[in-house]
Amino acid sequence: MTTWHRLGLKTELLPRVPAAFTLDRWSVAVFHHEGQFRAISNACNHKGGPLCEGRLHGEFVMCPWHAWEYSVITGKGPEGYDEEQVPVFAVEEREDGVYVRTPPVQPRRLVRHKPSHLLETHPKPSGAPPRVLVLSTTAMDDVNPRFSTSDALLEHALDQAKRRGADTQYIKLRDLKFRHCEGNYSKAARACTWPCAITERDPDDQLTAVYEGLVHWADVVLIGTPIRWGNASSLYYKMLERLNCVQNQVTIQDKVLIRNKVAAFIITGGQDNIQAVAGAMFTFWAELGFVFPPFPFIAHSRGWDAEDMQNNVRQVKMSDTLKEAAYELLDRALDFWTIIDRHKAEMDKPMERAGRKASTLPEPEEIEEMTV
User: Which CATH code, of 3.40.50.12710, 3.30.565.10, 2.102.10.10, 3.20.20.140, is assigned to 10-102?
Assistant: First the structure.
């Protein structure tokens, strides 16, 4: 059965549109384009983003979440993408106002896109050795590279992993070309998706290697960072912002992508603030789902008043004890993972969300004050 819904007078609507209206069971986005009111579904085909909040350029509205586009006249995507279509609704301007008819005159058409390989299962072969992913987050000029204290200790740990018979990967963030986070989470929690919308749209974005390694491949992850003005490196934070899509699956779907994986850290620098850097790292990687071995980081710093960086480098180069500490950090992480791997059934039990990120508690009932 068709129904005409009065939205209001033209003079009332013009200052309001683009705007969304709930008509029966449909959320309808209404636009004013080239002197006419147009109505299409308010829900983008991709992830349901609100089209009424998008930007109009010509007849096309761009979804504010991930930039998919649709004609406000036909509901179709631009040329080359016009097999996709959102529902289109009939509109009439009458003397007493503007009306939209439901149901739509054109239905939604979804094109089946090949899913990202990051959504596929990646089973580890039975009997395969443990897998160790080493992540360097220090930046440098590859044409004229410098000695990196954090990389040096990471590489000692990597050598130890190989001696232990583990499969290894070594990713240097500085070798990857990847875009900054575009802040989709700031638009709406559901706009920050897994896989990352940037990864889905841009085949040249190379952070896929990190996503693949962290979510699917690694059993143990070792992350190294220098200290930059009391914080981890800028490359480290560039990566972290893009990893919000992994943590956000817990927030919006209670879906944990990281399970039974161990993380450990190497932190070095000419300046101090090791405890704060380590604390921030623990918080983030724990919220992804990683667990930590005993004494899960090693660090080295000459302190706030020691700007003699040449001595910092020389000290790390010459220190057999720091080298041994890197070996032992890797050993602790691998040994801890071995224990976890034996007890997967107990580790995989459901967990209470209360007290964790984005887990709200019901408001308590007010207690009436007693008069004595």
Answer: 2.102.10.10
